[in-house]
Amino acid sequence: MASRSEWPFLVGNGMQTVWWEAGTLCLVDQRKLPHIEETVRCCTVADVADAIRTMVVRGAPAIGVTAAYGMALAAQNSEAEDRAGLLDALSQAKAVLDTTRPTAVNLRWATTRMFDLALADAAVETLPERLLTEAHRIRGEDEAMCHAIGDHGAALLAEGSRILTHCNAGGLATAGYGTALAPIKTAHSSGKRLHVLVDETRPFLQGARLTAWELKDAGIPQTLITDSMAGYFMRRGDVDCVIVGADRIVANGDVANKIGTYSLAVLANAHGIPFYVAAPTSTIDLSLATGDHIPIEHRSADEVTQLAGQQLAPDGVQAAHPAFDVTPHELVTAIITEYGVIRPPFGEQLARLRQTPAQDSPVMTDAPHAEPAEA
Amino acid sequence: MASRSEWPFLVGNGMQTVWWEAGTLCLVDQRKLPHIEETVRCCTVADVADAIRTMVVRGAPAIGVTAAYGMALAAQNSEAEDRAGLLDALSQAKAVLDTTRPTAVNLRWATTRMFDLALADAAVETLPERLLTEAHRIRGEDEAMCHAIGDHGAALLAEGSRILTHCNAGGLATAGYGTALAPIKTAHSSGKRLHVLVDETRPFLQGARLTAWELKDAGIPQTLITDSMAGYFMRRGDVDCVIVGADRIVANGDVANKIGTYSLAVLANAHGIPFYVAAPTSTIDLSLATGDHIPIEHRSADEVTQLAGQQLAPDGVQAAHPAFDVTPHELVTAIITEYGVIRPPFGEQLARLRQTPAQDSPVMTDAPHAEPAEA
Questions:
Q1: Domain extent listing, chain B
Q2: A interface test, pick of B317, B321, B327 with most A CB neighbours within 10 Å
Q3: Which residue among A58, A335, B91, B220 is least crowded, i.e. fewest CB within 10 A of its CB?
Q4: What is the pLDDT averaged over residues A169-191?
Q5: B21 φψ region: left (φ > 0), alpha (ψ -120 to 50), beta (else)
Q6: What CATH class is the domain B3-144?
Q7: Does the annotation count A247 as an active-site position?
Q8: Which chain A residue has the Cα nearest residue B261?
Q9: B266·A311 Cβ contact <8 A
Q10: Region class of A360: left (phi > 0), else alpha (psi between -120 and 50), else beta
Q11: Residue B216 touches partner A, C-beta closer than 8 Å
């Protein structure tokens, strides 16, 4: 692996996943990490849509930030001469971006916010610039939200905690610090001794490739395991809590997240282990009553039967690839948001949090209605 | 993939995993399936030990048969001139073979049976030949036991059953027909419509490589999934039962099997899905009261961090590799043996089955004390 200084997407003690440079959107190609560091430059909405679809960029918050820049690119590239033409271009861009991946709600949250801003702004000449500023703002908010999640969640982690996580809900899944990994990073920074069990997360190996890389970079002790080992370690008493991210949290608190999360939640429940979901409020979708209505993306079977171009299974064997699953709220101990930690029943609290005008105010202070994190 | 006729280890409608040819023990190299068919020839005990340790051959019953031939090779190769010398050579061979893999009890069951035969037989000149005959007999019994398990287990599978299995407990894990796959094969042969969900079984991918290959060869409909998807499909109602093999079943019915089995059992229990273990009585170890005493093999972390020589995780990341886990008997719905299907409480029934002189009688008929399989 290259040394830290050789990776241009590492900035100071953090990293950048999605950034703007010389009029283009830059993404670190997460399909190639940890062994190859490559920047993908997106100049058009089609480039952005392709990068999201093929998982150059993944992770619900990072996809949201990327889609916001996609809307900014649409405005920048538009040759429309009037407001109607520009709005039409933005509407088309939104439609293209919204259909790239169905499960993460942050994508539509971001494109809707960008489009609503365009609708509300009559000054057509300055709109491209204003949309770019808004994308920067969404990116900045994302970082701030991650750090707030880190602060609230860190309070849940006792000295010596052994935490199991799934997929990558780290800096690479956001603009730069992470959701599920944020409490771990913050607690580690404050001097707490922690150990992380990292699910490798088949088929895409986000755990083995990305989370292991991030934790190594942050100097946080870890042990990589296959997804099938989680129950074994829970039964041995080696897991104090599970923390995962989320792609969508619906009105009753049901959570869509990377395939395998539901199995972990059932296992945690069977062993009396707290199961935490860490996510910004942009992940909340009040339009759906329960998780049964969340669209689950089904990706190519080749991603299961092949690895790095190598065929694992016999040719012609059929495989399934649901990329997400839904964890019912009954199995969720608490949700860690940028406003604080909420515990069941989730419904009313989620509704209040989502209605908070997060996008119009700094998010570094607790909303008064969110329970403060425990000490 | 090569056509069926090109695979020398396929015989008639079945396959051979372990066979004797021209004075040597032949094994199909299971590390290379399904893409490369290669026969490994073992001429010495050291060759056999190495083949077991490196997983050229795997699966508790197949390891048992292989170890029996290893004992026969030891006698064949011995230059001892008297009975004491031959027994010493066999004792050394047993010690070498017994330590190759700690979890599967069939290994020690087979070497003990071979050694006990040598101890009881005074005719030193004919002993090598008698041991080879005994190894052939163990192999033949294994095949017969698998078919008996198939007959008993098939009765548990209703028309249209959707069965989830883990690892490979098929013909490749035995002398030729399988344990967990035997009921599926037998039910399929009798005309029942079935569908198998195959856990890929990280890290060694026995499901993706071996079970998928066997089911494809047998023409049984299947869908390959990652281990992390089992809960998702159970929650959707797509799984009617789980059938797995076993590496060791102890006195109270606790079961050691491939890592990931315990997680599946917890998930099956949470969803009210029957969880069946299919294994010959040579897998029963009455010397251990509970599964807590079963030695769990920990294999190299490289088998988790690398795949086919390719590094998956960042260099230097620590990984764990417990190769087995223990499922407590409370989570086991029934155990399918060659004598019939037993249901909880298991203790007394296992004791009676293990005391049955299986090695001295054909095993095609039900022992009178085993419950007959349900219709």
A1: 3-144, 150-360
A2: B317
A3: B91
A4: 96
A5: beta
A6: mainly alpha
A7: yes
A8: A228
A9: no
A10: alpha
A11: yes
Name the strand (E) or helix (H) holding B134. Answer: helix B127-154
Q: In the predicted model, is pLDDT for residue A9 greater than 90?
A: no
CA distance A59 to chain B (A): 18
Residues in chain A closer than 8 A to B227 (CB atoms):
202, 226-228
Tokens of A166: 């799934």
Q: Is B341 helix (H, G, I), strand (E, B) or coil?
A: strand
Selection from A210, A172, A6, A56 nearest residue B313 by Cα: A210
pLDDT in tens, A230-255: 999 999 999 999 999 999 999 999 99
B18 strand-pairing partners: B27
3-state secondary structure of A309: coil
Neighbours of A178 (CB within 10 A): 34
Q: Chain A 287-326, CB below 8 Å of chain B: which residues?
A: 301, 304-305, 307-308, 310-320, 322, 325
Q: pLDDT digits over A330-370, tens only?
A: 999 999 999 999 999 999 999 999 876 544 433 333 343 44
Whether residue B231 and residue A262 make contact (CB cut-off 8 A), yes or no, is yes
- pTM listed for this prediction: 0.92
Mean pLDDT, range A286-313, rounded to an integer: 94
Residues B174, B246: Cα–Cα separation, whole Å: 12
Give the rounded percent of residues in chain A with a pLDDT score beyond 70: 91
Tokens in use for A189?
A: 């920074």
Could you check whether A3-144 and A150-360 share the same CATH topology? Answer: no
Which chain A residue has its CA at the smallest distance from B232's CA? A325
B228 and A227 within 8 Å at the Cβ level: the answer is yes
- Are B224 and A320 in contact (CB < 8 Å)? yes
Fold type of domain A150-360: Rossmann fold (3.40.50)
Nearest residue to A157 via CA among A242, A75, A82: A242
